[in-house]
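Each field is set out underneath.
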Amino acid sequence: MSQTERYTKSEQLLERALKTIPLGSQTFSKSTTQYPHGVSPFFIKSGKGSKVCDVDGNEYIDYVNSLASITLGYADPDITKAVTDQLQEGVIFSLSHPIEMQVAETLCEMVPCAEKVRFGKNGSDATAGAIRLARAYTGRDRVAVCGYHGWQDWYIGSTARSRGVPQAVRDLTHTFPYNDLPALEAILSRYPGDFAAVMLEPMNVFAPAPGYLEGLKELVHRHGALLVFDETITGFRYDNGGAQRLFGVTPDLATFGKGLANGYPVSAIAGRADVMRLMEEVFFSFTFGGEALSLAAAQATMQKLQREPVIAHLRTQGEKIMAGLSALISKHGADDFLEVAGHPTWSFLLIKDTPQVSMWELKTLFLQEMFQRGILTLATHNMSYSHSDSDIARLLQVYDEVLPMLVEGCKPTALKALLRCKPLEPLFKVR
């Protein structure tokens, strides 16, 4: 089957979708900005466990896992049962359903910083709510950020995707590099008494240096600001209590989403009771904030995390990938432009520019060949409880086939011959 035939229906649906949907997808990271046109699937029809099937009938082992929101696996039977049972009672009501309180109680049991909880639907709801809350609590306006924190004005205005965000809003958000306390100290000192919060992903691509998170907490508090951990991805993935429990550093507030409900749309702000109490005055309210199906999924997910060795499995399987891929990079002499980084449950293949070829050209070739071989990836390994030893073995087998092509692709003339599509355009980077 030719590359064109492999994705015939995807291409047809994309052409149709582009007539009514900007970029053809509701999510930036699922669009043609990330998936090279002509050599990628664009629509998934179904998923079960660690595998998904696209609209053309091609099966993939999924290492994207719905942008790391799937931690147990697609169509997990325990989560499906909890949602089905709740569906018989109803989805949304004129008053609160007890499931709101039950999920909040479970989250407070599991997460060190959690004394009170409020729910949203997306991670962006939670991060924006945490910043509004921090500003109300401190009476200050400026925030400092490291990592990715969603689409809303307060954060996205600090990135290259800032169109439509007022300059006055953009000026209040300051970015700082990870593992660099002096850089953050300089920012906080430049505007003494102005910072309401410092928000960061406690870890993404690289691990915290010894003492970094502890020193960061002390620095933030010394400047009178609140420390907020964005655990949208790390929560219920790195540890049952999130990265804060894994690293032993408790923030004032934390935000959760994605794996909280194995892909169902719910997010949360959790934190100190004295700060969270201000939610009685700060307006953070949603018609669907207490939507019962997603909360039932969240409760079932957290209970399964407590009952079964989910996190241990994610870590063990992820460690096999990181070790195996590192060995293959060395085997094929690709150490100068490829690197493995991250946490075993959420790791990255870092592709770097070479003297003659850009990382975007190499990543396009990488994705083209991985998709062709039945691996769905964005150069990350977002692990799920469903990833089996055979899934890992297949991934490493595919890497063993594709890495030599990337080495060859470092030669411009060879790259042109290997690519069957237009290379991806450079995107704004948040990590």
User: Anything to note?
Assistant: The first helix runs from residue 3 to 6. Residues 77-307 form a domain with the Aspartate Aminotransferase; domain 2 fold (CATH 3.40.640.10). The chain has a mean pLDDT of 96. The chain is about 40% helix and 15% strand.
